[in-house]
Write a structure and sequence with these properties.
By secondary structure, this protein is α+β, with helices and mostly antiparallel strands. The chain is about 25% helix and about 30% strand. It has two domains: about 130 residues, Ribosomal Protein S5, domain 2 (2-Layer Sandwich); about 110 residues, GHMP kinase, C-terminal domain (Alpha-Beta Plaits, 2-Layer Sandwich). The chain is built from eight helices and eleven strands.
């Protein structure tokens, strides 16, 4: 997350990024009902912006600027996150939040989780809770499995149900085109489609250390996204997007998260390649790059 403005006790403006899964394995279903995953997360340069203003009384008001319909009540992750923090720490004041939504909803890009993480950080800074990043990540795990990642440096191996975050330093000198088609399916539907039982099904993939981006991407070719395997059978459009990205020179084309966004990784991304992808159906296109996330100093 990027703290653009901060006036402690009064207001803050945060930019909070999307993420992609460079690979994603679902290893097995756990006795607690969650699934054990093994994934490499990377933050990318597509941001939501949240403007927070402190209210003199507990509670939250939410205004959303978005192309996608989103709830403004307690069903919204921003509202649920504030309510969790308010209950946990007995906050005597509330928040007015304006959310400018640029990360597509239900896209496999972690936009809701990123907004939730930004809300935890904003509460920490505005109300001077003095929580560490580990404290905030632990709190975020109660909101959603992807939330802890957004308290990392922007790239991490993620395991458990998403709460175990090991920061990494693989090469990031590449660019991406992300294509979000109009097809929709929920994370719950995606897990159900895997038809996994409680038995451990396979060992976790271990990505070798790579000093050069070419070697890194070559090793990524040995990985996959387990959700993609089930969704491409039902939605041929996803295969169409993958093939088009590969035709335009993508080294890897893969689905992010539980989908349906497909991204292509390019070493040299020319304007021609991007233009050749535009104007096709109702796809939404984003040209992004990997980013690092700096951590706001908490005194």
């Amino acid at each position: 997350m990027i703290v653009r403005e901060l006036e402690t006790g009064k207001s803050a403006i945060l930019d909070t990024p999307a993420k992609i899964n460079l690979f994603l394995e679902v290893l097995y279903k756990r006795p607690d009902g969650y699934h054990e995953i093994n994934s490499l997360f990377q933050a990318v340069s597509l941001f939501d912006t949240l403007k927070f203003e402190v209210l003199p009384h507990p509670g939250i008001t939410l205004h959303i600027i978005s192309n996608d319909p989103l709830p403004v009540n307690e069903d919204n992750l921003v509202a649920r996150t504030y309510q969790l923090v308010q209950k946990e720490f007995g906050l005597k004041k509330g928040l007015s939040v304006q959310l400018t939504k640029r990360i597509p909803v239900s896209a496999g890009l972690g936009g809701g989780s990123s907004d939730a993480a930004a809300t935890i950080l904003a509460c920490n800074l505005l109300f001077e809770l003095r929580l560490s990043y580990d404290n905030m990540a632990s709190l975020g795990a109660d909101i959603g499995s992807d939330v802890p990642f957004f308290f990392s440096g922007g790239q991490a191996l993620v395991s458990g149900r998403g709460e175990v975050v090991l920061e990494t330093s693989y090469p990031v000198d590449y660019q991406l085109i992300m294509v979000k088609p109009s097809v929709r399916f929920s994370t719950a539907e995606s897990y159900a489609a895997l038809r996994m039982g409680l038995t451990k099904s396979k060992p976790a993939f271990k990505l070798q250390y790579n000093g050069m981006v070419e070697d890194f991407l070559a090793n990524l070719r040995f990985t996959d996204n387990d959700f993609e395997k089930v969704h491409v059978k039902q939605f041929p459009e996803l295969s169409q997007i993958k093939e088009l990205l590969l035709t335009q020179g993508a080294i890897i084309a893969r689905m992010s998260g539980s989908g349906p966004t497909i991204y292509g990784i390019f070493i040299n991304l020319s304007d021609r390649k991007e233009k050749n992808l535009k104007g096709r159906g109702d796809w939404r296109l984003f040209t992004v790059k990997p980013i690092a996330l700096s951590k706001q100093v908490i005194k």
